[in-house]
Amino acid sequence: MATSLRINGTAHNVELPEDVPLLWVLRDEIGLTGTKFGCGVAACGACTVHIDGEAVRSCQVALGDVWGDVTTIEGVGTPDAMATIQRAWVEEQVAQCGYCQSGQIMQAAALLAENPDPTDADINDAMQGNLCRCGTYPRIRAAVKSAARMMKEA
Amino acid sequence: MASVGKILRRTFLIGSTAIVGGVAFGAYMVSRPAANPLQPGDGEAALNPFVFIDQEGVTLIAPRAEMGQGVHTTWAALIAEELDVALEDVRVLHGPPAKAYYNTAMIGEVLPNKGYDISDFQHNLGELLGVVGKVVNLQVTGGSTSMRDGFVRMREAGASARETLKEAAAQQLGVPRDQLRTDAGKVIAPDGTELSYSALAPAAAGIDPIEARLRDPAQWRYLGQTVPRIDIVAKSTGTAEFGVDVRLPGMKFASVRINPRLGGVMNGFDDSAARNMPGVEQIVDLGNGVAVVATNSWLAAQAANAIEIDWGAAPYPPETDGLFAEIAKAFDTRANSTMRDDGDVSTIPSSATRIEAEYKLPYLAHATMEPMNATALYTGTALEIWCGNQSPTFQQSTCASIAGLETEDVMVHTTLMGGGFGRRSELDFAGYATQVAMAMQGTPVQVAWTREEDMTHDFYRPGAMARFTGAVDGGQAVMLDGQIASQSCAQQAMGRLTGMQMGGPDKVLVEGAFNQPYAIPNYRIRGHIAELDVPVGFWRAVGNSHNGFFFDTFMDEMAYAAGADPLEFRLALMRSEHAPSAGCLEAVREMSGWTGQTPDGVGRGVGFTYSFGTPVAQVIEVVDEDGTIRVNKAWIACDMGIALDPGNVRAQMFGGMIYGLSAACYEEITFADGAVEQLNFPDYEAMRMHTAPEVEVRILETNTHMGGAGEPGTPPAAPALGNALFDLTGIRARELPFSKTFDLLI
Ligand code: FES
Ligand code: FES
């Protein structure tokens, strides 16, 4: 049976069993590959998306349980029209391999929406579920802070 | 933008420089001061293509894989520096498998010298031997060699392209070439006439590439500066395409389950429950496992898990203890190598204090963020493979032999990769994709592994043991005698890659121990190979990853026995041996304000390893917070001679240290019933935002030879941390991970 979803402002009808995690709906069905698979057990954060603005692990949300509008990294901004947080990520040259960064950005965006002026401790709390095997942590921290600054100035 | 496939179809690699509307330039193998007996003949340059110019602009065909280390950006900068194009106007494509792209620096590493002591003659010889790489198709990204390999070749490619384009303009305008100049992708005549490179490309294609002198580093615009990474926007917007993001029309998704008893057979399976599960299209017998092809990766994985499989036994002792018993036995076998034997370790002054220690390090998984995967399309007469990989020539020949095709009928597309760390130099993931594609002729299939499959089917960093004996006298080390025992990952991996058995002394097994720049008068290192069939491979920094810990921890133990400050103890033995190494230690002493004293509740340790031509010193500070220990700060100093992109070097140094600290603190692969017990990140933790230390990196540039950046940050991390934990607690942990001995923040 078909399930309807709103993803990045567009309505989709998906023909998949309801227990398929949202991550695999996005990646294999809709073709939104910016959201990544890292563990499938809520331990890495690579699959982070927003549902109604809240950061969630899409590997843990079954298709049938999606409770609101989904935003993925593709819905945050595009190479030609980057969001402030993405500009901060570019400015701080955060990415190495880059695989974890969609999840990092989605997690950080949710943090900043709730807390426009996060301290180091706030950043530690919010970001510790997002693994980066390349070790880009200092630049993620710097980018969160510079995004906070840019958002205030805007 | 042109794809590699499109470029190839335009006969680009078949030996002609003439292509429709464009031109390709290669780099010359320049002759070195010592005459090169293997100098390639005329016309060879055209077969070494790196720079491609067409109506859309300049493209670098990068034969080295981008796994986060920034090689594409730096190689583009090397080209742009000589070619006079803006860096942001250079596009980069992963090169196809081709002999022209062999890795000269990696072959140089095979020479049995210590590295830091090599003369210019040996250095040149190393590069000459690089030609051998071409013979065995060693197009491999690894060994921290990309910068050394590309440093001259890429600039030559850029310079040659520039002069050839100028020659085309000279002929067109009737102006001598030396009166023309170049800027921003154009040739400019004295009267101000401008011709774009794209416009000149067709004419340049008919001109033999011109050899040109390289510019004086004083004129560099990009090199030596931090430049924006060319992939940074894509990687900040989710648009960078990794192997697992490849999407082809009509593509299916597959999941594999291979025998967890690694190398064991499959006796049989029952797929009756899986066959009717949603989305399932086909179940493929892989011989040592199964693949389920479905309409969705997750549905494929669910069905794969529903198959009952009867697995055969592992070809090695099934429990961790049994494996280490075999490793320990290797100490009693004849040494495979004695790469250093200075003085006489058997005679020491009677006044000296003798110390001994035994160390044990676990097997380790790579755990790249992006699990292994490959996408393949088999048509019956040809095979195309898309995957992130560090060795496309080997992928090509292996997949060809699996499919029963000629090598030239197999096309390998190298994508970006979500981490490599050595794992993606292996061929298994592309091999399985080939098998599945053959069962699905005409349909592209992506074979993506679950994290569990990835973690339990790695080519692991071998478990390793060491026995060290030393003597100190008058506050100085007078003797050090070390034995290292482990499986030989180099022999096993090279056998897999090339199909040739590699024998002889294994330098990799003892690197990071035999070649440390200390003037210890009696200094011997022997390597012992444990004959075991656990799959082992190249893990970031390879042998240095265990030997850095053994050797440097023992140095710290000797300093303690000598009653000396550990940093001064190392420095005293290093100054006369290798000044750039001593410079790194002096730098971290100053940066950290090292006094040898720490307040209660704070511990500091120093660590040092010379690897891949780069000395790296680290000071790490740990703090005790109500009984839980946190890694608080780190200071790193390195000297790779020339830092082509300091921002990237800093990122690599920190990233390398974090990779080493993750392993040192938390990571261990163990075996039960022949299978790996760790399945996913909860069993194999890593440094995270709240556990990673604050860090300061200083880059020195006094080394006369160019060293690597991607790996040398890893080896000193574990000993520096262990030495800090000893300073804090008085407990010397001789086994890793440290979480077994200490209560670390997690
Ligand atoms: S894939 Fe969802 S948290 Fe790792
Ligand atoms: S940038 Fe590679 S895993 Fe984070």
**Pair of chains with the largest interface and how many residues each contributes:** A-B, 63 and 65 residues
Task: Tell me the name of the CATH class of the largest domain in chain B.
Answer: Alpha Beta
- The CATH topology of the largest domain in chain A corresponds to Ubiquitin-like (UB roll)
The average pLDDT value of chain A, as a whole number, equals 97
Helix content of chain A: 25-40%
What does this structure look like?
- The complex is a heterodimer of chains A (154) and B (746).
- Chain A has 154 residues and is α+β, with helices and mostly antiparallel strands.
- Chain A folds into two domains: 2-75, Beta-grasp domain (Ubiquitin-like (UB roll), Roll), CATH 3.10.20.30; 81-153, DNA polymerase, domain 1 (Orthogonal Bundle).
- Chain A is 39% helix and 14% strand.
- In chain A, the strands form two sheets. In chain A, strands 4-3-5 form a three-stranded antiparallel beta sheet. A two-stranded antiparallel sheet of chain A has the order 1-2.
- In chain A, strand 3 and strand 4 (54-57) form a beta hairpin.
- In chain A, helix 3 crosses helix 6 and helix 4 packs across helix 6 (137-153).
- The longest helix of chain A has 17 residues, at 137-153.
- The radius of gyration of chain A is 15 Å and the shape is globular.
- The model of chain A has no long low-confidence stretch (mean pLDDT 97).
- Chain B is built from 21 helices and 28 strands.
- Chain B is globular, with a radius of gyration of 27 Å.
- Chain B has three domains: 12-237, Aldehyde oxidase/xanthine dehydrogenase, molybdopterin binding domain (Aldehyde Oxidoreductase, domain 4, 2-Layer Sandwich), CATH 3.30.365; 243-313 and 372-448, Aldehyde oxidase/xanthine dehydrogenase, molybdopterin binding domain (Aldehyde Oxidoreductase, domain 4), CATH 3.30.365.10; 320-364 and 460-740, Aldehyde oxidase/xanthine dehydrogenase, molybdopterin binding domain (Aldehyde Oxidoreductase, domain 4, 2-Layer Sandwich).
- Chain B starts with a helix and ends in a 17-residue tail after the last helix.
- Chain B is α+β, with helices and mostly antiparallel strands and 746 residues long.
- The model of chain B is unreliable at 1-22, 26-48, 104-112 and 118-138 (pLDDT under 50).
- The longest helix of chain B is centred in the N-terminal third of the chain and has 28 residues, at 146-173.
- At the A-B interface, helix 1, helix 2, helix 3, helix 4 and helix 5 of A face helix 8, helix 10 and helix 20 of B.
- The complex binds FE2/S2 (inorganic) cluster (FES) (2 copies).
- One FE2/S2 (inorganic) cluster sits between chains A (95-101, 132-134, 136) and B (68, 369, 419).
